[in-house]
What does this fold into?
Amino acid sequence: MSDARIEAYSRALFEVAQAEGNLSVVEDELFRMARAVESSEQLRGVLTDATIPAERRQQVVEQLMGGKASNTSMQLVSLIVGAGRGRDLVAIVDRLVQRASSEQQREVAEVRSAVALSEDQTKRLADALSKSTGRKLNLKVVVDPSVLGGLVATVGDEVIDDTVRTRLEQIKTRI
Amino acid sequence: MNLVVTSLFAVEDPSQTHHWLLPETAEIVYGGIASCIIFFGLYKFGWPMIVKSMNARTARIQKELDGAADARSKSETDAAGIRTALGDIESERRKILAEADAQATAIISDGRARLLKEVADLEVKAVADLAAARGRSGEELRGEIARLSSAAISSAVAASLNDRAQQELIESFIKSVGAAK
It folds into this structure.
């Protein structure tokens, strides 16, 4: 999809979420959905397969998000997948998150962890990262078991990596 | 005339001759004349033929002699050629044998040199192969050790990553990031 089209979709999603008054929740849920799509080749295949009818793809989205996300988020993802833009879902959502963060004068900080963080940990981590980078941040936590343990934070071009996976790789390289 | 005819054709009694050995005079005359005629005829006509025949025979004999001489000369030339050829054959045989000996010697010498070189090359290659195999084995062993070590470390770390460890890692990260500035 062209950059202009991705931009248009992300703007549309942003406007809808803002109009519904739950931008931060929708943004967060869509971000998690995008990460799930990103990490699952099977899910990505289903959502982007043009031979599967749009209704069936939308059913998959509803089954996946039903009860776990807001209705607005589910409807927006369903809209994108139904329009045959499932392949660009991740790019659209990432653009939406950037837009929402810019709106709040914040920068997106993506943190990957092997286990979910508590609210307190998330808040303290956001504060620590803001203090460390000197910027206001919109923290997005992704549960990624492949990191094994520890955290890796990406703020713009800066990466702070203290994961067990990276340490093991360093040890392997040294060996 | 009558006398002549009578003397010529008179029939005499054979027992009545004037000499027991010599013929009658007339017979001598007639016989002499007839003999002269015959000798003259022979001289005139027969002698040239005899001379010609003799000359022809002489020429033929001479020709045969010349042919024989030629044949002899040719035979002698052939014999000389054969002798020369025999000599040449012997010399050629010796030459061929000498060349064959030289070639055989050269081939043996070359073969020996080549074999020695091949043996030397094989030795060098074998030594290099041994060294490479030794190095490869060492590398493979090191690689295997590294792989097993990595797997062991991964397993040990994964086993030790319980909830408490995860929380400690998260807290450690938050603290280290917070203390970074």
About this structure: The radius of gyration of chain B is 69 Å. Residues 75 and 114 of chain B are 56 Å apart (CA to CA). Chain B has a mean pLDDT of 86.
